[in-house]
Structure formats: C-alpha cells, structure tokens
Amino acid sequence: MKHLILLFSVLLMIQASAADGFLQDKDGMLKAKAKELTEKYGAELGLEANQTAQFEEIVLGYMMKKAKAKQLNVSEVDKLGIIGQLGEQENEDMADLLSKGQYKKYLKAKKILQP
Q: Using CA atoms, how far apart are residues 13 and 10, in angstroms rounded to an integer?
C-alpha cells in the first residue's frame, strides 16, 4: 500500500512539474531516443502506421516519467519500485495498443531493447 501511495504521489509530482528545466533540457534527447526505439520495435513487431505514432507517444511518456523518477529525493529502493511500477503500466498500455501476437513479441524485444 505504501508503494502504491508513493507511486500516485510521484505521478502527481511529474504532472505538476512538466515545465521543469530537467525535462525541457532532456526533451529533445528523449524524443530522439523514443523515435529510435519505436523504429527498432517497429521492425520487430510489424507495427502498422496508426500504431507507430501511438507507440512512440507511449514510449516517450514513460521515458520522461522514468527520468523524473530517477531525480526524486527518495531512497534507491523506492526509486526502483517506482520505475518498476512505471514499467508495468507501460506494458499495460502497450497491451491495449498491440495485438496479442505483437504484445508477446514486444515483451521479448523489451528485454533486449530496454533492459
């Protein structure tokens, strides 16, 4: 329960600090990384044109949230817990976007592309 409350607090802080200088400085780099990852996943998963844009948005959103979580002033254990929960949420969002076959391939590819 403690981790769940912490996660929701972090997500609120992330939303509240969207104009944070850290995110602004890293925004271009994260967008480029998200585009690169989407291209790699696209080759593995056979993403359709309409899936590609949504996939990239999801990847970028979670990359930004994970980067912000790494900057939090909490213990390393809590950071790892938050990042783990964000990874699970990302998987759920991808499951909604992808077909079952694509999702299975995504989970396998994620272990290699985003260890």
A: 5
Q: Tens digits of per-residue pLDDT, 72-109?
A: 888 889 888 989 999 999 999 999 999 999 999 999 99
Q: Hey, what are 16's tokens? A: 């509240």
Residue that the structure tokens 């299975």 belong to: 104
**Measured at the alpha carbon of residue 29, what is the angle toward residues 24 and 31, in degrees to the nearest 5?**
90
The residue to which tokens 């590819």 are assigned: 109
The residues near 11 (Cβ < 8 Å, ≥ 6 apart) are: 65
The residue with tokens 């994260």 is: 30
Whole-number Å distance between alpha carbons of 45 and 47: 5
The structure tokens listed for 61 are 């959103």
Q: State the pTM of this model.
A: 0.72
Of 98, 79, 78, nearest to 90 by C-alpha is: 98
